[in-house]
Amino acid sequence: MRLQKISEVVKKGFDKVKSFYFYLLCFLLMNSDVVFATNDIEKSKIYTGTEKLIKDAFRAGQILALLVGALVILYLLSKKQIEDEVDSKVTKKRIKGVVIVVIITVLLVEILNSILGYYTDLRLKMDK
Q1: Cα 61 to Cα 37: distance, rounded to the nearest angstrom
Q2: What is the pLDDT of residues 19-50, one digit of tens each?
Q3: Distances (CA, A) of 91 to 52, 79, 84, 104
Q4: CA distances (Å), 25 to each of 57, 74, 115, in order?
Q5: pLDDT: which is higher, 68 or 22
Q6: pLDDT-derived band of residue 58, with 50, 70 and 90 as boundaries?
């Protein structure tokens, strides 16, 4: 009986929160101003900063995937040396899985980098 009462109070609270956010959204949509961008958006600080952020994120993603993968593989190899044969087979499967995940991650970052390179000038330059 008491649990049912608590669930009713929680449900009423969620309903109040939902209605509050709905009214807030309606208020913000009705009072929004229209802003037009200029043609010099490529020279703005937000655009150039976002471009640099994406380049750094791609670079960091590749490096992080390789480092974390190498550390996990080293851990699993050291764990494999102490285990018996039955557990060693499981560890060998985990090592293969980690290698596959690292390869897929690096390939996905490269594919995304190539796709973005066709649409924008965000392609990473390897000589930098």
Answers
A1: 32
A2: 888 888 877 777 766 666 566 766 777 777 88
A3: 40, 8, 10, 20
A4: 32, 51, 35
A5: 68
A6: confident
Tokens (6 digits) for 87: 């557990």
Decide: residue 109, CB within 10 A, 0-12 exposed, 13-18 middle, 19+ buried. Answer: buried
Measured distance CA(85)–CA(14) in Å, rounded:
54
Extract the tokens encoding 33. Answer: 């101003």
CA-nearest of 119, 108, 101 to 58 is 108
Chain center to CA of 24: 29
Shared-domain flag, residues 16 and 70: no
The amino acid at residue 81 is: Q
- Same domain membership, residue 51 and residue 22: no
Is residue 4 domain-shared with residue 55, that is, in the same domain? no
Domain of 88, in residue numbers: 42-128
Q: For the whole model, what pTM was predicted?
A: 0.54
What amino acid is encoded at 124 in this protein? Answer: L
**Residues 24 and 56 both lie in one domain:** no
Instruction: Name the helix (H) or strand (E) containing 122.
Output: none
